[in-house]
């Protein structure tokens, strides 16, 4: 068994299925089966499998689910159409706990998947293996073998997937789609608007209460049509219940009153020593200051704009001059190179051979001159070393002659 686990490639991604049998952890082979894993992860993120059942169970063989209709004939992929199988040589149906896509052909994979409950080598090359059940959750999967099924391999009490959770998403670019689901309408009982009737028979004084109730109803009905004012409710002698008569004012009188008021206003303005302009300035003394400040700010902005333009122009001119100098140097060097290139004879010509021989002669002459200089330098060193030795000998002879004397 360990050899089988060693041969399987490493996983990348993990999904948790919460079922009625317990939790089931699924590790994904997202490198070996990218399409199937992407389809499975996105459907889990969208909650597509929530509430679905395992509609087909064959003991020690497979447990199939992933169909929202629960019939085994439904399901859709995230690609909008069925996708092809992804067969890998290192992923084989040799043990229980593998997760693969259910299909009816090579290019018929959608949303349905199944778990293997044992070795199923007859399915090799026909279905895409994209995951495996990990950890101790394999024992929750094995409980499927104890479920009773009918003659069509359909469980009598099918296990259900409660919810799905993506613990490790190998695809960071997946964006779950907005799934529009029909809302369940709750049938609320209608409230009855009929008024309740009082049962006076239950009271010991029922007859008296019933008579009072009838009188109250009659009074309410009579008072609904009539409106009452403070004159009716209070006995105040200062308030009169008769309607007041307002004297009508003619439009000519209104015009005369308005003219008189306007003339009075004009006379008051004439008498006042302050003109309307001066009054405006006195009421709003800060208007001129604000205008001057705004003008100063506008002038400062214009000056800054002119300076910036001048600076940009100077920078552009400097860059142009530097570029022109560089171009001139490049052109000059190019011309020199072309002239030197023209002087060099072509390959295979006699001039070319003569030039190479001349260059060799120059090199030899340089070597000879260097050797001569080295010899002359060594000779001069030898002479310098021999000169003091001879002087020492002469001094010794003189000392001997002096002693002889």
Automatic annotation (TrEMBL):
The keyword Cell inner membrane does not apply. Residues 173-205, 224-324, 369-405 are annotated as: Disordered. It is found in: Nucleus. Residues 395-405 have a biased composition (Acidic residues). CDD domains: cyclophilin_CeCYP16-like. Residues 174-186, 224-238, 290-319, 373-384 have a biased composition (Basic and acidic residues). One of its GO terms (molecular function) is peptidyl-prolyl cis-trans isomerase activity. Coiled coil: none annotated. The keyword Metal-binding does not apply. Keywords: Nucleus. It holds the Pfam family Pro_isomerase. Residues 19-166 form the PPIase cyclophilin-type domain. Transmembrane segments: none annotated. Part of the activated spliceosome B/catalytic step 1 spliceosome, one of the forms of the spliceosome which has a well-formed active site but still cannot catalyze the branching reaction and is composed at least of 52 proteins, the U2, U5 and U6 snRNAs and the pre-mRNA. Recruited during early steps of activated spliceosome B maturation, it is probably one of the first proteins released from this complex as he matures to the spliceosome C complex. Component of the minor spliceosome, which splices U12-type introns. PANTHER family: PEPTIDYL-PROLYL CIS-TRANS ISOMERASE-RELATED, SPLICEOSOME-ASSOCIATED PROTEIN CWC27 HOMOLOG. Belongs to the cyclophilin-type PPIase family. This is Spliceosome-associated protein CWC27 homolog.
